[in-house]
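Appendix B, example 12.
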Amino acid sequence: MWSETTDVGPCNGFFERPALRALVPRPLAGANFLDAGCGSGAQCEWLLDQGARVIGIDLRPAMVEQTDHRCRGRGRFFVADLAEQLPLPPSSLDGVICSLALHYLEDWSVPLRSFADVLVPRGWVVVSLDHPFGPPLPDQQGGYFDTELVSDTWSKGGVEVTQRFWRRPLSATLDSFGDAGLVVERVVEPQPSVDALARFPVELARVAGVPWFLVYRLRLAS
């Protein structure tokens, strides 16, 4: 159920993922990538289908199992915690994708430094996050300049889902990138497409014209 409702769901499949994939540099064939926080494997499958070599990691064994099944024996997938140093060789990857996963961690120093360490020179990271200028959430106590653990609740496949993640100001995000030796090359503030709005008029009405996600393409500093 998780894969189906996410892949064809309004926020992931038709809103965040197109923006993230648009920032991934081409060509992909023959290159080596990490999907950090791979979930049920949608990004891994997308990269593999274009001829890339892919490693996928996730904290949850069930997600790693789903990714392996989805990718039909292609790629390498294992359980790993982004809060710990990645067990990967240095300078071994052309790029890292991290889709709506980094904001589950309060401290980004280890994962961002790990991303930088595994990249080849001029390697890139494409990361999507909750937008810091987004509307306040119901349980949010602090203001914009506070780094705070917040939660959001929505319905997914008829099941109510609550996720807890960290909100932080834009300056804290950019400082974390810079401290890890990564520089911002491109930024996208996605909005639902006309087709997505036509398909999900009710679900996406609340995000149209509102800062919701923020997608960055980062490069290793020269």
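The chain has one domain: 2-133+170-220. The mean pLDDT is 93.
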